[in-house]
Amino acid sequence: MAVLVLTSLAGAPGVTTAATALAVHWPRPVVLLEADTNGASSMMTGFFRSNLPSKAGGIEKVALASTRGVLRREDVFDPELALSIAVHDLPPIKEMPLPAIPADHRLWVVPGFVNMRVVDGVRGLWGQLPSLLRSISEDGVDVIVDLGRLVPEDPRLTLIDTADRTVILAEPTMVDLNRLYRRLAMDDLATRVDAFTRGKRYGLLVTEGPAEQIPARDFHQHVMPVLGTFPYDPTGAATFSHGRPDPKPNRNRYRAAARKIAIELDTLVSRDGLDRKVS
Asked: Which of 13, 17, 217, 226 has an alpha carbon 20 to 30 Å from 41's alpha carbon atom?
């Protein structure tokens, strides 16, 4: 089983939207952890359409649990602790239904911060999460981590270090190509993403936009390999970012791309055959 991290290095290319769509269509049971420290959770008001109270689950509760000294993988799935939301067990909501997930798919979501004032006070959590996430993956459930935008010397870099794959999102423009190239040259990432590892543990997903696009080969040549592309489909993407009704999912181009990319990422990780046992 695998731990994947999704992040961006500049701008707002839709990391949470992509992470949510990939988790919905991941081929195995998966936990989606919204660990963005740049803003309040968008999943609670977006994907969950404000249907759930903030106490239903979230990273703030995980942080509180971690202060007790023991945070076990089974705690994440314990309904009494309510650290995560078991999307596959939620009852139907007639007034504002949640976006559909495939039949028999098991998906748990740990929403992000609601109270941004606590972010600086939980810095110790980022050092404890790697062991927890690896334990979950070793127990047969994959993990997708949404980091949002990564800032220089980010305390969440420990999550990148434990990931089997780190996927960076960007728009296929010269602006983002230059931003990525410059950001990867900074010390905190340059020591991690070098010429020997970027093709194995790191890759890009590009999200098309209204601006003029540049070829994926330019990113491959100057930054790192492009693993897939999300189309410019604001309406389709809104299914995952804002919980927009999706009455014709087979015509949702963004959903179709997420389904394809999820399978390809899973194949890459499986092919790597990494030892994911907790040390």
From this structure: 226
